[in-house]
Amino acid sequence: xxxxxxxxxxxxxxxxxxxxxxxxxxxxxxxxxxxxxxxxxxxxxxxxxxxxxxxxxxxxxxxxxxxxxxxxxxxxxxxxxxxxxxxxxxxxxxxxxxxxxxxxxxxxxxxxxxxxxxxxxxxxxxxxxxxxxxxxxxxxxxxxxxxxxxxxxxxxxxxxxxxxxxxxxxxxxxxxxxxxxxxxxxxxxxxxxxxxxxxxxxxxxxxxxxxxxxxxxxxxxxxxxxxxxxxxxxxxxxxxxxxxxxxxxxxxxxxxxxxxxxxxxxxxxxxxxxxxxxxxxxxxxxxxxxxxxxxxxxxxxxxxxxxxx
Length: 309
What we know:
Strand order of the largest sheet: 6-7-8-3-9-10
Oligomer: single chain
Number of strands: 14
Structural class: alpha/beta
Number of domains: 2
Distance between the termini: 32 Å
Mean pLDDT: 89
Radius of gyration: 25 Å
Helix content: 25-40%
Order of helices and strands: EEEHEEHEHHHEHEHEEHEHEEHEH
Shape: elongated
CATH superfamily of the largest domain: P-loop containing nucleotide triphosphate hydrolases
CATH class of the largest domain: Alpha Beta
């Protein structure tokens, strides 16, 4: 459905996107994950024909964004990071205006208006002016303008920025619902968004693709290790560091001395290695008390930090 091949975007000597290639299949929800300034918004603006690539090619359903941009625009609904709203307009007037722009007329418009009001949950505020709406409802109006022409593809740039937790959950659910019938790309730097919503994840950093795959595939890519968090009492910090560094399968990530004298240690342990008995024996021999020992697998956040640090 979307094919990006060797795309670069330069601003003078600065390359915001560097030789990026990826595809998005029909009916897929792709989470575009990266830190601020990684190139997410630039990539989305090129896909939606808001700016041309410097090099490379982008096609949307077989249409080239440079030579067939009007055809591409008809197929895409776009929600920019800054929602494009005219605050002095009423919600219904604004959606009618967008329908005019998108050439949705007659009975098609009536059906489209009913559909987007229902899908985005705008019925309670349809008679209000946009400046009266909360941030969450403004985002819903933004979604409505993006889907009023019933596009095959949705491109959403950080759609939950600035929303409260309840609003974020509502928008996540809306993305999942829309993804049942459309191809969706949405950008974010929030791990929970990707895990809760996307079928596949693409991580971009400093204009380059750092990794792509399902959340499980990305986590498996660093599954050679696991976390182990420990809290010990009556342990000498220097002695503990010495003992841990002597064990080949353990890597000390962080160690803190709490106000009460307990030691809080974050360890990485080679996967497949059960060191519980060895650590218990070391604690006994050194007269340490293990107050806590909590193993956990790597998360998508760990993958993100490893790839973008």
